[in-house]
Amino acid sequence: MPVIHDIESGGGAPALEAKHVSVHYGSKVAVSDVSLVVPANQVVALIGPSGCGKSTLLRCFNRMNDLVGGARVEGAVEFRGKNLYDPDVDPVEVRRRIGMVFQKPNPFPKSIYENTAFGPRINGFRGDMDERVETSLRQAALWDEVHDRLGDSAYALSGGQQQRLCIARTLAVKPEIVLMDEPASALDPIATQRIEELIYELKKDYTIVIVTHNMQQAARISDYTAFLYMGELIEYGPTETIFTNPREQRTEDYVTGRFG
To answer: Does residue 81 belong to any structural domain of this protein?
Structure first.
């Protein structure tokens, strides 16, 4: 059984709760019987060695595994009291409310403005699009750098700026939860710092779950950390506890660099 430390929910309902989640790719078990609570307006980091199931588990939280051939998800992921895997749940609506930022920046071949406006447009937004674009770019700490060239191609931006644009594009549809799959792994140290500072700011308004291979990053930016190994959740609790006083020997061995 995994070690689950006390998780503070701030007195309210958790933002997300995984209950006995397993993921199979054909005959391969990628995630095995994982249960954890994601508190609202907190940053939860998923750590572990390559191939341990971090990204697979993350993709369970907004049904991105539905798009992977041969993938089968068992268990439940509850959001606002509803299992996201119930037959009557629309996965497109799930992904609007639980957004995803990927490892490599993936802007569309459009202008900076149209990248940001894309989600609201396809969701039928009828309000002030200029205001929505500006708000989203401000939230992503990008407005000051691009406000005078919104018509330029997104490809003209640096890698770090492109990733912040992708974050703005995600925020523009007003999600409640933002999932990030190693969002800074392809960036230089300065751009990485900007992303980390941005995550810290965003948790005021959003719940964030981030996969990272960088343990120092997890220690810097997250409130809670889940350590996965070979598809299993080994230990989950406050980040400070996981890094300074873990109860599981395997957790201690990993965070102190003895393997992984």
So the answer is: yes
Residue bearing tokens 């051939």: 69
CA dihedral 213, 225, 222, 55 (to 10 degrees): 40
11 has pLDDT over 60: no
Share of the chain above pLDDT 70, in %: 98
Residues paired with 101 in a beta bridge: 180
If residue 233 lies in a helix (H) or strand (E), which one and from where to where? strand 232-238
| Residue pair 242/255 in contact by the 8 Å Cβ criterion | yes
- pLDDT given for residue 114 in this prediction: 98
User: What pLDDT, in 10s, does the model give residues 121-149?
Assistant: 998 999 999 999 999 999 999 999 999 99
How many domains is the chain built from?
Answer: 1
CA distance 61 to 56: 9
Query: pTM for the complete prediction?
Result: 0.94
Expressed in angstroms, the distance from the first to the final Cα of the chain is 21
Q: Which of 111, 131, 116, 103 lies closest to 195, judged by CA? A: 103
Inside any domain, residue 91: yes
In 87-167, which ranges are E strands? 98-101
Report the CATH number that the domain containing residue 29 is assigned in CATH: 3.40.50.300
Q: Which residue from 225, 223, 200 is spatially nearest to 212, judged by alpha carbons?
A: 225
- C-alpha span between 170 and 232 (Å, rounded): 29
